[in-house]
Every structure is written in C-alpha cells, then in structure tokens.
TrEMBL record:
Residues 1-18 form the signal peptide. It comes from Halocynthiibacter halioticoli. This is Lipoprotein. The keyword Signal applies. The lineage of its organism: Bacteria, Pseudomonadati, Pseudomonadota, Alphaproteobacteria, Rhodobacterales. The keyword Signal applies. Keywords: Signal.
Length: 168
C-alpha cells in the first residue's frame, strides 16, 4: 500500500505545480517507506529544481548540491521542517545518517518560489561551518537561528508518523 500512496503523492506533487515537466518520478521503497521525489522544471524552464515530498507531506526543493529549502505548510512547526530535511538528505540524496544539516536561511521568503520556506545545507563552506560550530542548538529545533544544526538521523527521527515510530 505505501507504493500506491507514494505514487499518488508523486502525481499530486507534480499536478500542484503550474509548470511541472517531470522527467522522472522516484518512490522511496526503503524500510522507512520513503517519500516521493519528482525531478523536473518548476516555474520557468530555466529554473531546474528537484522536488521531494516527505512522509509528513512537507515539500523540499533542491537548490544545487547540498542546499535545499523546505516549503511552508500551515500548522507545521520546527520539528516538521527538520523531519523533512533529514528525510530528504538520507532518503532522496543518499547521504549518511550522521551527516550534519545546518539551518542556512531562517523562515521567510523562498529563494525558489513565491512561498515562504526555510533554507538548509549539508555542505556549508568553511566560514559558515566555523560560525555554526559556535551556535548552541539547544533543545528545540529552531526555524530562525542560522547555524543551528542536527544530524540527518536526529532530524528524520522527528517524523511523527506510524512508519517512523515502528508500527509498520
């Protein structure tokens, strides 16, 4: 049943965009159930962006190697954004669970769409990493503190669905 659900999500994800010329649709079939990745052109033909729908229905847009945005969704909080970021890095990009994810751009206008988003990276440059090393991420998953960082697995563990909680 997860395949059918994810296939329908892929079709919906592409259909929700005004100009989505999907070349490929990938459905994660790993032990976690995975999400849905749709690659294609979003918006203008010149703007090639990868699109991933996380298991918590948050949309992640890839913005070049190591940089991506999680789009705003009403009623979602910081842990939901970090969940989508962690799942995207591990499931869609194949990075190791111990990979650090850094909040690069606080909640605000997107660089990729007209929506609001949070910008993340797992490939910071040396100066950004040095700045982030001095940031205390505390106990909450911030949507505002640039440099906040968590491992991809810790971020993904924030996903509050039955698949991640071990019921399936």
């Amino acid at each position: 049943m997860p395949f059918v659900k994810n296939f329908l999500l892929a079709a919906t994800a592409c259909g929700a965009l005004a100009a989505c010329n999907a070349g490929t649709v990938s459905v994660g079939a790993g032990g976690s159930g995975g999400g849905v990745a749709v690659s294609g052109n979003v918006g203008s033909p010149a703007a090639s962006v990868s699109r991933y729908v996380a298991s918590n229905s948050m949309v992640v847009l890839g913005a070049g190697y190591g940089h991506f945005e999680v789009q705003q969704r009403a009623g979602k909080g910081g842990s939901d954004y970090w969940c989508a970021a962690g799942e995207y890095v591990i499931e869609a990009l194949g990075q190791r669970p111990g990979t650090r994810i850094y909040l690069e751009k606080p909640f605000g206008p997107s660089n990729l769409t007209s929506a609001k988003s949070i910008g993340f990276t797992f490939a910071p440059d040396a100066s950004f990493k040095a700045m982030a090393d001095g940031v205390n991420s505390g106990l909450t998953m911030s949507m505002k503190t640039v440099g906040s960082n968590w491992s991809a697995e810790h971020s993904r563990s924030q996903c509050s669905n039955l698949i991640y909680n071990g019921f399936f």
